[in-house]
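Section 5.1 Outputs to date
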Amino acid sequence: MVLAKSLTKKYFERTLFDKVDFVIGKNRKIALVGRNGVGKTTLFKLIMGEEERTGGTITIEGESIEYIPQELIFPDAKVFDYLEKNLKTETEKYKIDELMAKVEFVNYNPNQPIKTLSEGQKMKLKLVESMLRNPTLLMIDEPTNHLDIEGIMWFEDYLRNLPISSLFISHDRSFINHVADEVWEIEKEQVFKFVGDYDNYKEERLRLINKWDEEYVRFIRKKAQLERLLESARKIKGGKKRGKAVGAAKKRIEREVEGNKKEKFEIKTIKKLAFDTEASSGKLMLRFKGVAKNYGDHPVFEGLDFELRGAEKVWLFGPNGGGKSTLVKIIVGDEKATAGDVQVGSNIKIGYFSQIQTDLEFQEDLLSYFVKETGTYFGDAYSKLSRFLFDKDAVKKKIWQLSPGERARFKLAIFANKNYDFLILDEPDNHLDIETKEVLEQSLRDFKGTLLLVSHDRYFVESIGMEKMLNLKDGKLTYL
């Protein structure tokens, strides 16, 4: 059991948690959600003892905890050598092979350097390392960011059937629906607990917000009533009687208003993105004819034939390492095809959103870079960035100081201030919180131009309403 009592965490003037209580019980599957920056990863670190508490206690009784972070870091080592360090004796080496089979680690080579593994393989390697230590509680930060669709579906089954407790941070709503027994949300410096999956959480959360709204309305009415009472008391003739009435009214205000203050609940989220396009629905946007790509002697794909027209929305999916990002890079000119013909439509404006935002200049501050990229005046840039939740202090930060979620949101801010005919989005939903995803979904659903989307988030794809599907697997492209 992990038991938190009156847990408080402050950073200078900012409070993340204020007297929070919770219990992580036996074999529970708990999804931890909340907007970027509310303290999800901090809560993990408090449980792990990697952050100091400002107040309260965390008691860990009979638990062995393993933590898989969002960003996976490994030494320069071979797969088996790395895992072997977690064994107590030589006779336990069989456990490595058993676990690698259980996590369906395809083409397991014990002598393969870790740095040559795919992101999905690295995530499974970290999982095997954790399970070798026999945990009773597994904590995972954004596990689906490293997995393709097949890997996510496999991990849903694996985690759901794992006979231990798990606490995982995720913005993947379909994943939460398939795995979670409970959903915990960090909001208003508290942890609110909802029994059930994501869909149930969404309904119960709406009821909770309505309750807060009703409490706020009652508070405002009571405050106005008591202020009128105080004003009436001040008009009473006769000093002694007036003084007594004023004192009584002030005490009621202190007790019923100041001691029971309610604030209006507002969900802070970005504004809808609006893209204008002049490309007609029949216009040729992209054509691949016999396109192949090799890296040395290693073929990525060959003989790819397809075309996109104006206003089409196409979902490109497939296994990690199958060549989706390479295909995208060929379209935008960051890579050259080994063979075949690539034709991009004439006089069209292409917007490319990379999943890791490597095109950003990390040493620049947000305001200067935004002005340079969008041509916005400095005075207007403040208000435009504030629509994406970057206040006057945040815009002074260097881009390298941003979290992955903040970097993705900053890139969206730049996107929103340009107009494109053809959007190419490579995992745009990675690192975004659910509220921001929902705004992006609506924006892309309403987009009148052409969209080529790479994503492993099934909920996200379904919400946009993609019209065509392309599966890139084993070097071939299949229309579905």
